[in-house]
Design brief:
Pfam families (chains A, B): TetR_C_11, TetR_N
Helix content of chain A: over 70%
Oligomer: homodimer
Keywords (chains A, B): DNA-binding, Transcription, Transcription regulation
CATH superfamily of the largest domain in chain A: Tetracycline Repressor, domain 2
Shape of chain A: elongated
CATH architecture of the largest domain in chain A: Orthogonal Bundle
Order of helices and strands of chain A: HHHHHHHHH
Strand content of chain A: under 5%
Protein name (chains A, B): TetR/AcrR family transcriptional regulator
Number of helices of chain A: 9
Number of strands of chain A: 0
Structural class of chain A: mainly alpha
Number of domains of chain A: 2
Largest interface: A-B, 26 and 26 residues
Distance between the termini of chain A: 39 Å
């Protein structure tokens, strides 16, 4: 479930979200995920449990919202001067982050407390925005570029599938092979 | 968690698994997933709740095991006389089954109650076995064939990614585009 209502930066709703998210992150590192309860999060965040239930549904949906927030990219993709270099660098970083133990835990949390798929959709939208930025920059340089959806199918999907379903090589060489396949037909 | 110990067909362990799985499937259709409890499943299956806890862990892990069993293919891939035709047909059927409402629910259940990833690994192994069968048959015919992992990356992964993360076209045309990309470099 997405946080609702939509938050206005600096408004009460945004402050509640910020304090609840911070409480979850702190408590997870203090007592672990297994020990976490909604009343515990509410007490730490200085809100009532019913504020949390009303806005997030239950603990798993709250953990999902926090996980998606952690999966939000913090910087624009690096500009290395060419489409190939930019996509290689982005794919390597994406693979490193997602395949790391915290990345795997966030992906799992994001999917688990997400009955309507909107949090998983936010994860995918973050990746699409980053790829869009790389492709737009390349188009401005005059390079030919593939569709964003094609890059998602050929680079993002295989990485996420291996993380979720199929243990296997998840290294720089693999990221580069996927990018090469995405750029093959240009 | 995988069922343990390993079952011998017709042995007590196999009979327990069969009766518990049947009880879960029947009760899910009678009372829904939300109303399900381990004691309810145990009573219907004629076993003690502790048998279930000992073997499956908790309800979510039991649901995951049942879901993986539902995702097990029941037939060998059709033999249509060529690699391309066989892979097209297999990919279309895989897409149809996984993207259907029951398929989506089973994939979700399989991932949720699966702390160590072994049930997700079984799902992936089922797909790999089917692809292996198609590729081996083509090799016997004298056709050149790609690696199984390449077909998983290029055909299975994008379908599963769209089901889990990114709503979008999941139709026959899409399945064929993915197969074409998997066979492009032969």
């Amino acid at each position: 479930m997405s946080p609702k209502p939509m938050t206005r930066p600096g408004g009460r709703s945004a402050r509640v979200q910020e304090s609840v998210h911070t409480a979850v992150r702190d408590l997870v590192s203090e007592v672990g995920r297994e020990g976490l309860t909604v009343p515990m999060v509410a007490a730490r965040a200085g809100v009532t449990p019913s504020t949390i239930y009303r806005r997030w549904g239950d603990l798993q949906e709250l953990l999902s919202d926090v996980a998606v927030e952690r999966l939000r990219p913090e910087t624009d993709p690096a500009d290395l001067g060419s489409l190939r270099a930019d996509l290689d660098a982005w794919a390597e970083q994406f693979l490193d982050e997602m395949a790391s133990p915290p990345g795997r835990a966030y992906i799992r949390d994001a999917l688990l407390g997400d009955p309507d798929g909107s949090n998983a959709g936010r994860c995918s939208a973050y990746a699409a925005e980053q790829i869009d930025a790389v492709l737009n920059r390349a188009a401005v340089r005059g390079e030919r570029v593939p569709d964003t959806d094609l890059v998602i199918d050929r680079v993002v999907a295989p990485i996420m599938y291996r993380i979720l379903f199929r243990p296997g090589k998840l290294n720089t060489e693999y990221a580069r092979e996927l990018v090469a396949n995405a750029l093959r037909q240009l």
